[in-house]
User: What shape does this take?
Amino acid sequence: MIFLAFTTYDNSRNGAEAEALTVIQQFETAQFLPEATRSSLSGQLVCYGRHVVGREWPLMEEGDGIAHTINPWAVAMFRSLRATRPEAATEQSAYDKWLDQTSDREEARRDRIHGAAGIIPTSIWIVLFLTAAVVFAYMLFFADSAEMARSQAMLIGSATTVLVVTLLAILSLDNPYGSGVGSIRPAAMERSLATLDEARAVVGDDSPLPCDENGRAV
Assistant: This one.
């Protein structure tokens, strides 16, 4: 169970990092598209990242149906790209590359949100808690009044500690976006947003963004 939970945790973390990296790569690709589309896509990419940090992450922390939501800026970028008419060879190549990167971003997003609701079913949790209770009862059954209280406390205490720590580890890994120690934070996307701000300044894109700090449309 620990291995299964850690695998999901690791996939969620890798998905978050891959998604953030793909956002940066798509910004670079957008600079080779027609000028009319370039600015729109660049701003919408920033809003996409802001929506992930400001809107999606709180939902993942609560496990509140994030798998059934869609990032509205992904739809906005699709509409902007659909209206693009690439003519030059460079523009056509960038257009194809953007589509490939969009698929990569969507796959990474799927990995990121996969672990938000947990993957260990209730039936397995029942088995885990029942097993822990049986082991605890087994240790109590063999208690010997002839032994020192300290020895018996050490025996039952060590077994109980191992069981409790194991269950807590499984619970933490099964909820990778919770508020506990080791939870996954949106650090990768926040770094990408900082990079996008610098990149927009470098390419001279000072157009107003179509969203606020949390990715809500304005």
Observations:
- Residues 2-30 form the longest helix (29 residues).
